[in-house]
Fold this protein.
Amino acid sequence: MNTALFYLAASGMLCVLLWTPYILNRAFVWGIPAFISNYPTRKFPAESPNIPVWAQRAQRTHLNMVETLPAFAAVVIAAHLTEANPGVITAWAATFFWARVMHASVYIFGVPYLRTPTYLVSWAAVLMIGAQVVF
């Protein structure tokens, strides 16, 4: 398997796994009956103050990855199909993945001043892979 495609697959798995902390917290805080019957016909338990801040940050981390992953997938697949410089693509794909792991960690744990820089590293990685395809 192409290493850049490996990092794309790993990023997809990371995206799917990032919902785990806040979903488990909700099941624990709300209880299983409220968790499995949470429909918009009544007030969501999520609107209650029982959801800890770290779980709210975990949810936002997941949503941020959901928003970012399509762009990453598009440039990695385009780079693979156009046979762009594989060494450069692999390096930036790895950079994206590890920056997203770091982003999730600092965001969920509330580490000050590191959330935005780690996001910007992953953002730059997407742009650098795209530049290898376009230019």
